[in-house]
Amino acid sequence: MAKTIPADSVGLVGPELIHFDEPLVLRSGSVINDYDLMVETYGELNADKSNAILICHALSGDHHAAGYHDAANEKEKPGWWDYCIGPGKAFDTNQFYIVSLNNLGGCAGSTGPSTINPETGKPFGPDFPIITVRDWVNSQARLADHLGIEQWAAVIGGSLGGMQVMRWAISYPLRLRHAIIIAAAPKLSAQNIAFNEIARQSITSDPDFHAGRYHDHDTYPKRGLTLARMIGHVTYLSDGAMRDKFGKDAIKGNFGRDLRTGKLNFSYEVDFQVESYLQYKGESFSGQFDANTYLLITKTLDYFDPAVDFDSDLSKAFAQSNCKYLVISFSSDWRFPPERSKEIVNTLLKAKQQVSYLEVEADQGHDAFLLPIPRYINALKSYLGCVAAEFDEQFDEKIDAQPEDQGEHPNAG
Amino acid sequence: MRADLEIIQQWIAPGSRVLDLGCGDGSFLAHLKKEKAIRDCGLEIDADNINLCLQAGVNVIEQDLNKGLSNFESGSFDTVLLAHTLQTVERPDILVEEMLRIGKNCIITFPNFAHWRHRLKLLSGGNMPQSSSLPYEWYDTPNIHHCTIRDFDSLCRERTIKILHRTVVDFNHRSSFLMKLHPNLFGINAIYHFTR
Questions:
Q1: Closest approach of chain A CAs to the CA of B173, in angstroms?
Q2: ipTM of this predicted complex?
Q3: Mind listing the pLDDT tens digit for each residue in A311-340?
Q4: In this complex, which of B40, B55, B60 lies closest to A385 when CB atoms are compared?
């Protein structure tokens, strides 16, 4: 029996692998001669190509942002931002053409460390160059060229995705009308980098890592990647969110420390639910994600600093941008807390840019940006409603501007 | 549109930069955008109002006026507006100074606590006055710094603030002969346009 797909879903979708054969010069000076990007799109591009939205993914995201891939698999979960993307949803596919890709260096089909290097016949592994946010955005601009999109109606992303949005606004000021930056930061803090370094050390110190050439040894650093993800996962949650998740037993003063079997083991076995949960999450992630990509993307995060070309003054970087901004933060996010989003907002104000900002009360920590929190979703919907009205108006103006007497359209009648 | 906003908008130059402190649902900024092509920025703390601003296409920033405006650069706006909010903030004097720092000119409206009905209520009954412009009990009112037209005039004098316009109006935001004669006694709402 085929599964039932909700009416407001984009339904069954399939990715497309797009090849680019113009060499891409990277920030590091390295060159990628040619590459593939795995891309998914939802909705229809309108006649004047003014209704396109680019979705930028975060650390572990990919091109599959909405809908389903497998009609037969009833257990399949939809894409990672499915509650936002679909007919009548905040990113309304009746109005917008939505483009989502797996970034360069990723491990979901785009060229990355696990791609076979044609020169060696083996995966690139540690030889794959470090990619920066700027490089991603340059590759995304080529994707826009390929799709015939001169200017995005909006570029949207959360966390590391929000950093790509900022880079778009700075590097390509004429190629987007709206920038939506969610749960992001203008650059990483020392604490953020510290967590990334612990994650990297976990991976590289795993004996199965083999200096990044684990494919050659027919293995992968399962233990290290599991640990890295466990650390990352804790930084995505909040204390409150963990109390809620692991404090369901109504014991006073439990502080979210539900026992796994109802009693202490008095050993080094798993006692608490949070321990087994983290191990499970970490292990399942390690089976799906490439360790070299994880290392690469943590470096991409660490290196992000769009002010670097502007005397470390981010307002100078933003001053040349030409879009409107919406910035959103979440109250319990301690990875990129509201203060970091306010830095972005205040810098935009200093740069005399048009910006809206909201701080959403939410207990889910950094993960909140991936969750259907009503105030957050309503804000996206309200804002994008105005974005859609703009290109409707532009289209009307174009029709109005056409001369009255054009003769009969060849296809009329 | 509210009549007080009708009065205010004549002081706002086309194409100017307007900062609206406590912009509510953003309808006034939306109106100014449409009629005067202003560059808009509103501050608001109410979540529902913020969403209405986004729906109206108004730039809105979630920010508490009581936590200051230090994130706004000096002279970065042409007009800074504070409509019916002065009496609700913790330090109205500091806010007025901040408005003067950020804006080339400022507009403030507030309910006049010295209106004769309020005076009469306090004199006769001895209770804190309530009226349609001040519909709260003393313990739940957001209006924590009531002020009168004479009070605001004194503040302007002390701080060498130059009053460009002062209009005193009734509930319907109309002025009358009595209000012009004795603004502090007959004026219900005060509208000040000032600079330094």
A1: 31
A2: 0.93
A3: 999 999 999 999 999 999 999 999 999 999
A4: B55
| Tokens 């009469």 belong to residue | B120
Place of tokens 């260096």: A105
The yes-or-no answer on residue A332 being catalytic is no
Residue type, B167: T
How many domains does one find in chain B?
A: 1
Fold exhibited by the domain A189-303: Rna Polymerase Sigma Factor; Chain: A (1.10.1740)
Structure tokens of A408?
């009969």
> Distance (Å, rounded) from C-alpha A304 to C-alpha A160?
9
Size of interface A-B (CB pairs under 8 A): 53
Whichever domain contains B145, its CATH number is 3.40.50.150
CA A373 → CA A237, A328, A335, A364, B21, distances in Å?
Answer: 15, 12, 18, 10, 27
CATH architecture of A1-187+305-394: 3-Layer(aba) Sandwich (3.40)
- Owner of token pair 């906003």: B5
Quote the CA–CA distance of A36 and A25 in Å, as a whole number: 15
Q: Are the beta carbons of A345 and B71 separated by less than 8 Å?
A: yes
Q: Does A316 touch chain B (CB under 8 A)?
A: no
Q: With a cut of 70, list the residues of chain B below it in pLDDT.
A: 1
Identify the domain containing residue B127 by its residue range. Answer: 3-195
CA distance A11 to A71: 9
Q: Mutate which of B16, B29, B62, B70 to disrupt the A interface (most A C-beta within 10 Å)?
A: B62
Torsion angle of C-alpha atoms B108, B113, B114, B116, degrees rounded to 10: 120
Would you list the DSSP string of A104-153?
TT-SSSSSSTTSEETTTTEE-GGGSPP--HHHHHHHHHHHHHHHT-SSBS
